[in-house]
Amino acid sequence: MNQTKKELLPLGSIVYLEEGTQKLVIVGRGAIFDDPDSGEQVFADYMGVLYPMGLQPESTIFFQHENIDEVVFEGYHDEEEDRFLKIYHEWEQNLTVPRKEVD
After folding, report:
1. Which range of residues forms the domain containing residue 83?
2. Which of 45, 75, 87, 98 could pair with 13 as two cysteines, CB 3.0-4.6 Å apart?
């Protein structure tokens, strides 16, 4: 999903990741988590769960906007979403936690 400007998808959006075969539902954005590979805290644009199973702690997937191949459904968007995105971009600019590189 090559875009010149990254605009986060709303919660509830359903996507396929690059080379993915199962849909994911976006349930979180701006996730900071302990990376099991490095043991360090890292940042991911999205937190998703398998569709249609939903939230299963052992199958939560963290990924970046650029890892999205196809948007199947875009979640609800209103003025609160616009406000969230404004605050989110300001927060992201001041973030000191490294971005997780997802292949």
Report:
1. 14-93
2. 75
Is 84 within the bounds of a domain? Answer: yes
- pLDDT at 3 > cutoff 70: no
pTM of the model: 0.87
One-character DSSP codes across 54-70: ---GGG-EEE-GGGEEE
Nearest to 33 by CA among 99, 103, 102: 99
* 41 within 8 A of 35, measured Cβ to Cβ: yes
The residue length of the chain stands at 103
Residue 63 lies in a domain: yes
Digit-coded pLDDT (tens) for 35-64? 988 889 999 999 999 999 888 878 889 999
pLDDT at 75: 97
What gap in Å lies between CA 64 and CA 92, rounded to an integer?
13
